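dude i think i finally got it to work??
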Amino acid sequence: MRTVKAGYEIIDELENKNVIKKLEKIARLCYKSENKIIEDSCYNFISGIVRRKHEAMIEHAVFAFEFDCYLGCSILDLDVGLLKFINFTSGVGDEFIVSGNARAFKDIYRVDSKNVAINSILYFLCNKYPVLFEDIEPRRIKGDTAENEEVRDFRMLGCNEICGLPTALRLDHQYLTVKFIVDRGVSHEIVRHRLAAYAQESTRYCNYSNDKFSGSITLIHSECLTEFQRKRREDYFWKTQELYDLEISEGLTPQIARGILPTALKTEIVVTANLREWRHILKLRTAKTAHPQMREVMIPLLKELKTKIPVIFDDIEISE
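look at this
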């Protein structure tokens, strides 16, 4: 049995380069198989995930596009129930901006493949990131306009362009990915935020009795505990470790043996959301009424974001 401190790491803001490598890093966290990452291993790994329909992982691949008025208006033809999966706003001029993750665009296309804007997005993404969209075959739609006119001003926005948008637009179209190291109790609260993508260390597949984990479970103590209370808990958790190891040795799989693991078990969880949702998360989870262990990671994160992106986060007050 081991103990570690809670923490976090900003993986990136919004980026479109090396997106497949980013997805591999995130997805392998679920199995704690990061040691298997080698040059270009990402393509076969992500291809396998897509073929197995494990599409929650590709929700961490986010793209933003700028359309002309013709394409932008076609977005409004989508069923209102589909619009909740993407962000759609007017741009600086006559343009429209739409952003969303790879899974959202695929799901919308599966429902309405004839929508000009969605078809154009999928046609573009299938050519740029074929490993993510190998199960989709969109075709460019010809409308009443001149050939290919509907895509004349259609383009994907890069990170620098999104960072240069007015603040109101950045809130919706700039995304942030953060990895947290917390206990299971805190992670259960984090995933209550619906407008985000998640990837979490899986107790179904991680066998904490094997050498990869040094044959031990890892725990996180609350800073509210005294030294005596920590020691008392550790004495109890040693018994948990022994029972877990025994059940594994008896042939139970990790997904069954995990039933005796404590809430204090360390877990890693990756969260991707746009800046508007991060503002909501940080306002709620840094408040005095938030769980103390949630505040242990969210307050330092907010302080860093105030430095990195002050125009977005500087007005959020921190209750120490």
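DSSP finds 14 helices and ten strands in the chain.
im so relieved honestly
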